[in-house]
Automatic annotation (TrEMBL):
This is 2-aminoethylphosphonate ABC transporter ATP-binding protein. It comes from the Bacteria. Belongs to the ABC transporter superfamily. It comes from Pseudochrobactrum kiredjianiae. Residues 26-256 form the ABC transporter domain. PANTHER family: PUTRESCINE TRANSPORT ATP-BINDING PROTEIN POTG (PTHR42781:SF5), SPERMIDINE/PUTRESCINE IMPORT ATP-BINDING PROTEIN POTA (PTHR42781). GO terms for molecular function: ATP binding.
Length: 387
């Protein structure tokens, strides 16, 4: 854990203000990182506001951990700058930077008790015994492990060890908290519980936080903003809703959530044509006759019941097509439904239908139904996968 000169209590425990109007706290400018002839990072520019929770999200090898390590000073950039609280820290060693860090492996000291692990950074800062005792007790209470102080890391569960690692990282009240895939070693149920705890803790402390993750659901649930990375570059920066609903590229749309993709030709007056199917689309800047890709997410497909049911309200829908259900998977809160349609040139359409919709419409495998592809939910990308 690297720490610099920090101030105890610089972030109040009730600092839950929104970050929208706060000042820039961390700025990365023109940052490149080379390993031999390979560039892991290429011209990264990023600004993070004070108190913001930002996730670096992307597939393995995209550069997200390399960027985190550059900010921490653990792997100095080849060129470019890093500013924290208006101070140029680009060339400072880790020990002189103001941050706390939590690794995927927790990195707790196995020979020290829990309270000694948390106290480690404070002791290095030459704090008084009374200050250390009070701070450790406060943090153990904060992470809900006050009764575990005398135990050793090996006596705790993975989730408990991760909470202790967090307590140790924030013990010295750093200006910046760095989390390197902190939940990836935990089972699914513990991960969901702990991500909520981490977010609540971050809100209470008001500490600017960067978390690296490859888990899309984790980023959507925790982040104020998401930095989507691919091949050493930033594809998009936005709120969870923005990157999910308004992806800037086909890569972002594909990586965050499930998608259905179909090649189309741009038609006249806001339409996209696939074979005999003419889809009404929202406004775009693509030229008529150009090749494009239309995307719709499974949860945006609306079922309208049996295709031959003339009493159906389907006549009021947009972009209605007839499909045949090939298979249905029960996934707890919804049915993932695989369908096929001649209107889509016999390509598969995947939809997520709620349990209520499945019951109401009596959906079964082999059934032919009408589905709606809402105009407002169709995403249009050019032939290169850009919007």
């Amino acid at each position: 854990m690297a720490t610099g000169a920090v101030r105890i209590g610089q972030h109040g425990l009730n600092a839950d203000d929104t970050t929208a109007n706060k000042q820039e706290y961390l700025k990365v400018g023109g940052l490149w990182k080379a390993f031999g002839e390979f560039y892991a990072l290429k011209d990264i520019n990023l600004e993070i506001r004070e108190g913001e929770f930002v996730c670096f999200l992307g597939p393995s090898g995209c550069g997200k951990t390399t960027l985190l390590r550059a900010i921490a000073g653990l792997d100095l950039q080849t060129r470019g700058t890093v500013h924290q609280a208006s101070k140029d820290i680009s060339d400072l060693p880790p020990a002189q930077r103001d941050y706390g860090i939590v690794f995927q492996s927790y990195a707790l000291f196995p020979n020290l008790t829990i309270e000694k692990n948390i106290a480690f950074g404070l002791e290095n800062m030459k704090k008084s015994r009374a200050e250390i005792t009070q701070r450790v007790a406060e943090l153990l209470e904060l992470v809900g492990l006050a009764d575990q102080a005398k135990k050793y890391p090996s006596q705790l569960s993975g989730g408990q060890q991760q909470r202790i690692a967090l307590a140790r990282a924030i013990a010295i009240s750093p200006g910046l908290l760095l989390l390197d895939e902190p939940l990836s070693a935990l089972d699914a149920k513990v991960r969901v519980h702990l991500r909520h705890e981490i977010k609540e803790l971050q809100r209470k402390l008001g500490v600017t936080t960067i978390m690296v993750t490859h888990d899309q659901e984790e980023a959507l649930a925790m982040a104020d903003r998401i930095v989507v990375m691919n091949k050493g570059t930033i594809e998009q920066i936005g709120t969870p809703l923005e990157v999910y609903r308004q992806p800037s590229s086909l890569f972002v749309a594909d990586f965050i959530g499930e998608t259905n993709k179909y090649p189309v030709r741009i038609g006249a007056e806001g339409t996209a044509v696939s074979g005999d199917l003419v889809l009404q689309c929202h406004d775009h800047n693509l030229a008529e006759g150009s090749d494009a890709i239309v995307v719709i997410r499974p949860n945006d497909v609306i079922p309208h019941g049996r295709a031959l049911d003339t009493s159906s309200s389907a006549g009021n829908g947009e972009n209605l097509i007839e499909v045949q259900i090939e298979s249905m998977e029960f996934l707890g809160s919804f049915w993932r439904t695989h369908m096929r349609s001649t209107y889509l040139q016999n390509q598969q359409l995947i939809a997520d239908f709620s349990i209520n919709a499945e019951r109401r419409l009596g959906l079964t495998e082999g059934m032919t139904i009408l589905v709606e592809l809402p105009k407002s939910r169709l995403l249009i990308f050019d032939g290169k996968g850009k919007r």
